[in-house]
Design a protein that fits this description.
four-stranded parallel sheet, alpha/beta, 9 helices, 6 strands, about 230 residues, globular, 2 domains, Rossmann fold
């Protein structure tokens, strides 16, 4: 069987998503060099980590984690860009499997009931053709064995780009843009809210404020990457 795999690999090699070099048969998605270029946070088992502290006095979350730090001109930025704007959805699968394994083995995330993605506005969803969080969220759902729910938290108005805005400008830009439907699905649930990047946290804060209107809901956060605050 291994012989057949080796033959297949010769004619149909995989390429690293970070540098386009051919992957060795023991590598998947990223080569060893590019993996080492990601600045891992190691937040999953760390109580009172830097991401959690960034929300103190703003929202009351149970726990928060992120795979790696988002740094400009580094591999993290490149991966997120490929996922969001180049339709490289296998990156979502790769990161979902990575984080799913971490969360499953962490006592801090044992009581999660369902996963909720930060939603896209319908117009953006139609133009892009996909929500960059879907593959990521579905792989988390698989590993944690809980539902991935996309029909409760809804984005009702389109905001301008958040990329160059500071925290307060971002928060103003996200005020009252998220709404809820079929709230009964999340009543008394512990929700894992997911996103690709957290910089100021304004989008997560706005989503939390909408979810907090549901009776008995509690919220934890999981993201692919985050800034160093």
């Amino acid at each position: 069987m291994q012989f057949l795999k080796d033959i297949f690999y010769i004619f149909f090699p995989n390429y690293c998503l970070g540098c386009d070099h051919t992957l060795h048969n023991y590598e998947s998605y990223l080569c060893t060099y590019c993996r080492h270029d990601l600045a891992l946070t190691n937040f999953t088992n760390e109580t009172d980590n830097r991401l959690e502290r960034s929300f103190y006095g703003r929202i009351k979350i149970v726990a928060a984690s992120s795979l790696f730090y988002y740094e400009k001109h580094h591999k993290a930025q490149e991966l997120i860009h490929l996922l969001k704007y180049k339709n490289q959805q296998q990156i979502g699968v790769f990161l979902g499997d990575w984080m799913g394994a971490e969360l499953k083995n962490s006592p801090r995330f044992k009581e999660i009931d369902c996963i909720i993605p930060v939603p896209l506005h319908p117009k953006k969803l139609r133009s892009r053709g996909f929500n960059q969080l879907d593959k990521f969220g579905k792989r988390l759902s698989y590993h944690l064995e809980i539902p991935y729910v996309v029909d409760v938290l809804i984005k009702k108005s389109k905001t301008s780009s958040q990329t160059k805005k500071g925290r307060f400008a971002r928060l103003k830009n996200t005020e009252e843009i998220f709404t809820l439907q079929e709230k009964h699905k999340l009543k008394n649930k512990h929700v894992l809210l997911i996103d690709d990047v957290v910089t100021t946290g304004a989008t997560m804060e706005a989503c939390y404020n909408a979810l907090d209107l549901i009776e008995g809901v509690t919220v934890s956060l999981a993201t692919m990457s985050c800034s160093k605050f």
